[in-house]
Fold:
Amino acid sequence: MVRRVLSLTAGRVSVAILLGIALLAVLGPLLAPLDPLAVSDDTLAGISGSHWLGTDYLGRDVFSRLLDGSRASVVGALEVTLMALVVGAIPGILSVYLGRVFEWVTLRVADTLIALPFLLFAVAITALLGNGITQAMLVTGVLVSPLFFRVSRAATLAVARSQYVEAALISGASLRWIIRRHVWAKVLPPIAVALAQTLGVGFIIVSSLSFLGIGVQPPEPTWGGLLASDLGYLDYRPWAPFAPALLIMATVWASNLLADAIRDVSGEAGRALLNSRKVRANQAAAAGGTA
Amino acid sequence: MTVLRITDLDVHYGLGRRRRQALKGASLEVRPGEVVGLIGETGSGKSTLARAVLGLVPASGGRIVIDGEDVSGYRNRQWRSLRRRGVVQYVFQDPLRSLDPDLPVVDSLIEPLLIQGVPREEAVAKARTFLPKVRLDPELLDRLPAQLSGGQRQRVAVARALITEPKLVILDEPVSALDAANRVGVLEILKDLRATGIALVFISHDLGSVAGIADRVAVLYQGELVEVGTAREVVATPRHPYTRLLISSAPTLRTAAAGRAEREALRALLTA
Structure:
């Protein structure tokens, strides 16, 4: 699967961007040239050699804050995504197999979660559990999980009633055997697509929550937090929102690109696509040989 | 000794007001090495009978004895251990859908053995010895189902059913999705099987395709087994009106098909 995704240009580009972002998350805080929390008199400064992206309204170095905030943003987005994956995909697959009661309960829970307005709910939960990045992200993850529930349930349903699963059943296969051997391979591609999409959404959620002051607390920087504070001083530094917005956009875009690439190469359609590419490459090679 | 004995089998589908009976008191015996043709029109309960024998639908009454083992009250775990021994196998009608499209055919072929816990190398070696029996080229093993013809796929499905050395194989319209040449090929394979002592239950809606291969024929009509007898008896002296209708609809079994008036009279008799 990984090799197939990397055989597409879109796959390579998106993976490269995401690796860059991941590197930024790991090394960002170390790379920050100045203390991201250090206040100075030099407020709302423009771009200069000492402040690459200028300073904010408290005179803090924006470039350092951007690098320092990348870890919280990326970790937050990952937390949302993984939480949603675990809480959504596993019950989604099992809802097809574990009987009517389990099916009914999980479906109604998923419906309920979809119906909840997530920002309000996140605000309410952080009020209840205390305001912290992990609480906020885990709650958000649960709220996003119906996407994974629906996707994995739909994919499993399509496979579960198939004759090859029945053939395995007739040979005495256990539930675990059927899921591992027949269901998993069919469910994985749509889940991977949902995963990449949610990662993109996760960044926006982390950003919008910290924009509202939920999750990461000031003065700790995040991309969304930077965007929020920059928007307040558009009169003085109209170009300022571009840097954090660009980072968020690039990550979301790369995630979606990756999702598309995964979708393109998986399943029957993916095999056909790769085959046609191979055929074309062979034809090109043959043409080159005769020329 | 019988491989399969069904006594007064009832099967219901649905619950409450939508509950309806798919099988009414069906009784049938299959002896080792015997080929039994199970005939009936769509919705007559043929597949339900097969699925009940495999434990895929629960029986609401009656008894099923497989190879001397009364399975009537079996729970999931007991079914699983029975199935794992591979005593009864099943061949589906549509060979395209009965093989996992993402797995090379060898994986589908040896799956019953892998489930039994046989090591992979051993299972593949055994699969190779089975290929001549179903007239398949070993080269095909590494291909995906989509790269095989319908006839080849059905032969893979037959080989998968045989690989556990079952005593009974149920074939649900095994040739109706195939063209004439492949149909003959698969039927030839099934005839070879008879010699090995495996009992076959051959499900079909068409008496003509079964009469040539079956020792005995059982006719299902609206969930009831209306007639069971040797193939010759059933064809020559059908007792139930539905069987007569079946035979008169098949021009190959008589010098000429029944006239329209005769068929309509038989239909009227059935609906009365």
Residues 2 and 169 of chain B are 14 Å apart (CA to CA).
